[in-house]
Amino acid sequence: MEIKVLKDILSANDRIAQENRKLLDKKGVFAINVMASPGAGKTSVILQTISGLKSKVRIGVIEGDVSSRIDADRIAKENVPVLQINTGGECHLDANMVQRALKEMPLGDIDILLIENIGNLICTAEFKIGTHKNLVIASVPEGDDKPLKYPLMFTVADVILVNKIDLLPYANFDLNAYRKAVKGLNEKVEVIEVSCVTGQGIKQWLEWLKGQLGKLSNG
Amino acid sequence: MHELAITQGLIDLVLEHAKKAGAKKVLRVNVVAGELSGFVDECMQFYYEQLSKGTIAEEAKLSFQRVPTQGRCRDCGHEFIIEELNWICPKCQSNNIQLIKGMELFVESIEVD
């Protein structure tokens, strides 16, 4: 006997992701899933975001890594609430891990929650965790071909930061081709060039973020 | 490594539906998987054998129907299969391509006794 199922294999994960979203909405927390390949600058962007916004909005951070507390320790120096998730081998955060972490976070004291996913451009894009927006951080040394090699990631992105833009003169990175490839996959995505070393573009990124908060409180 | 998590999700889904149907044994699991869904068949098969041990689905055959990556050209509307990640419209050479298929990953049906 054949039984029709027609159900997404990740539906259990998606259901928990929806619960996470409900909890975040109830507490008035705007959450961002920060995704990138290893070394693109996820933690550096988070640190820049904290130092640029700390006086205006309350930020919290969940750090996902396969192992170690290195990133959480870097963030903790900024005196914001931070929690480290170690996946112990899993190459992505899933909704269940994030649900457990949310229970430990002081959500009532947080306006923006940055969730740093595992450095990986593949399956992090597939597992929803309940955040409102997806931030993808690319970086110049990775090369301009990544959107076409990892199309799913660039399709789910709401905003892309092209980090290490100060290295453009030294790299074979065609910014126009990159923007064209990204826009081809994802018409609506915002692309902002930044450097966490020189500070270029960081203001624009913070404006985008503040704009999202504005939309949230108006709607 | 994420095949492990995906396979666990698959088995949970299979057992849930088999139980609902009052099945004694699951013979076959038909999975539809887009080319971009990012997992390896053999890897999933391996985890399936490990994770389904001791359940009524342990002897089931996993069958994969692969869905090729498909795009629609935003400039001329042409729909085509994207081969080797070549995101160029074969009709008008535009690279303004919307991804329309290739990301799916679901259980189509199960065959039970």
Largest sheet of chain A: 7 strands, parallel
The end-to-end distance of chain A, rounded to whole angstroms, is: 49 Å
- DSSP strand (E) fraction of chain A? 15-25%
How large is the share of residues in beta strands of chain B?
25-35%
CATH architecture level-2 label of chain B? 2-Layer Sandwich
Q: Please give the oligomerization state of what you see.
A: heterodimer
Total of helices of chain B? 2
Number of β-strand runs of chain A: 8
Rg calc of chain B: 18 Å
Q: Shape of chain A, please? A: globular
Gap between N and C termini of chain B: 32 Å
Task: Describe the structure in your own words.
- The complex is a heterodimer of chains A (219) and B (113).
- Chain A has 219 residues and is α/β, with parallel strands linked by helices.
- Chain A has a single domain, classed as P-loop containing nucleotide triphosphate hydrolases (Rossmann fold, 3-Layer(aba) Sandwich), CATH 3.40.50.
- Chain A is 38% helix and 21% strand.
- Chain A contains 8 helices and 8 strands; from the N terminus they run E-H-E-H-E-H-E-H-E-E-H-H-E-H-E-H.
- Chain A has a 7-stranded parallel β-sheet with strand order 4-3-5-2-6-7-8, with helices on both faces.
- In chain A, strand 7, helix 7 and strand 8 form a beta-alpha-beta unit.
- In chain A, helix 1 packs parallel to helix 4 and helix 2 crosses helix 8.
- Chain A starts with a strand and ends with a helix.
- In chain A, 46% of the residues are buried.
- Chain B is 27% helix and 32% strand.
- In chain B, strand 3 and strand 4 form a beta hairpin.
- Strand 1 of chain A pairs antiparallel with strand 6 of chain B, so a sheet runs across the interface.
